[in-house]
């Protein structure tokens, strides 16, 4: 379970409703009750209806129906419904709707890449980078997981990824020494080495890289690296420019891992909202 904190939800609400809802207050809706429902406006992989429900509850509404993130739904499917004070339902409306629209767009895009790749190579893993919009990582991670992808790395604190830029600063240390140092310092972690040439990929595998990450290699070069590393234990990850349109080609080339940021650029998917009078309290 990915925890999107109460503090994050509170931040979302304060951004949109810093001092109450002027329109609702001016219409005299305080004291009335309302029912609010959210439905998929298109076929999608739903993401974050749980958090949308928490937003409603946080403002004083009850939640009657909520789908789970990862549900694949048709247009018109009920994602979430709740009832409570009208001012609470209106305050939660756009925050909850927009959260589900953006998250479901990411989840659906991730699912498309996973489906395209696994149609060719069932065991391939689609791993999404940390390049989500700053401040939205928890939502982004929950969304890509809902779509069947996994996080490439959640941040700089959890994985070892040796870039050419590190080696540029470590000019006095060869690649072999850098890999050995990482393995000695963090023996429980896999060492990923990003490379930009076939020769560098071979060198990384030869010196003990657990994963060789190919930056912006076309599929035919990925296939060449896979062929050359066949006698090693290194896994091959293709990174840079991977999307739903070329994921199958990269999977067919033999990459075991497809590293992508593409889902984060997906357009939000429409979530339709309807209001009705609520039952008298």
UniProtKB/TrEMBL annotation:
Keywords noted in UniProt: Glycosyltransferase, Transferase
Domain Quinolinate phosphoribosyl transferase C-terminal: 106-273
MF term (GO), any: nicotinate-nucleotide diphosphorylase (carboxylating) activity
Matches recorded under Gene3D superfamilies: Aldolase class I, Quinolinate phosphoribosyl transferase, N-terminal domain
Any GO BP annotation: NAD+ biosynthetic process
Keyword Transferase: yes
InterPro entries from the UniProt entry: Aldolase_TIM (IPR013785), ModD (IPR006242), NadC/ModD (IPR027277), Nicotinate_pribotase-like_C (IPR036068), Quinolinate_PRibosylTase_N_sf (IPR037128), Quinolinate_PRibosylTrfase_C (IPR002638), Quinolinate_PRibosylTrfase_N (IPR022412)
Domain Quinolinate phosphoribosyl transferase N-terminal stretches: 21-104
CC per GO annotation: cytoplasm
Cross-referenced Pfam families: QRPTase_C, QRPTase_N
Family label: Belongs to the NadC/ModD family.
UniProt-recorded name of the protein: Putative pyrophosphorylase ModD
Organism: mine drainage metagenome
Gene coding for it: nadC_12
């Amino acid at each position: 379970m990915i925890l999107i904190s109460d503090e994050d939800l509170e931040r979302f609400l304060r951004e949109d409703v810093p001092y109450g809802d002027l329109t609702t207050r001016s219409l005299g809706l305080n004291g009335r009750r309302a029912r609010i429902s959210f439905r998929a406006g298109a076929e999608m992989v739903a993401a974050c209806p749980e958090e949308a429900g928490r937003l409603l509850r946080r403002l004083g509404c009850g939640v009657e129906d909520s789908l789970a993130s990862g549900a694949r739904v048709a247009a018109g499917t009920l994602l979430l419904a709740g009832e409570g004070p009208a001012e609470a339902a209106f305050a939660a409306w756009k925050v909850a709707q927009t959260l589900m629209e953006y998250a479901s767009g990411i989840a659906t895009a991730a699912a498309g890449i996973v489906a395209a790749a696994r149609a060719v190579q069932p065991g391939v893993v689609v791993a999404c980078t940390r390049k989500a919009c700053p401040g939205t990582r928890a939502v982004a991670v929950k969304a890509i997981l809902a779509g069947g992808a996994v996080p490439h790395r959640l941040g700089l604190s959890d994985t070892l990824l040796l870039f050419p830029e590190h080696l540029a600063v470590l000019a006095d240390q060869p690649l072999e020494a850098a890999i050995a140092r990482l393995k000695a310092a963090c023996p429980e972690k896999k060492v990923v080495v990003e490379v930009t040439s076939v020769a560098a990929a071979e060198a990384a595998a030869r010196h003990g890289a657990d994963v060789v990450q190919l930056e912006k290699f076309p599929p035919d070069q990925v296939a060449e690296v896979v062929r050359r590393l066949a006698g090693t234990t290194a896994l091959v990850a293709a990174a840079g420019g991977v999307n739903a349109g070329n994921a199958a080609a990269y999977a067919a080339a033999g990459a075991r891992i497809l590293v992508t940021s593409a889902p984060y650029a997906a357009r939000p998917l429409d979530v339709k909202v309807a209001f009705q009078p609520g039952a008298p309290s």
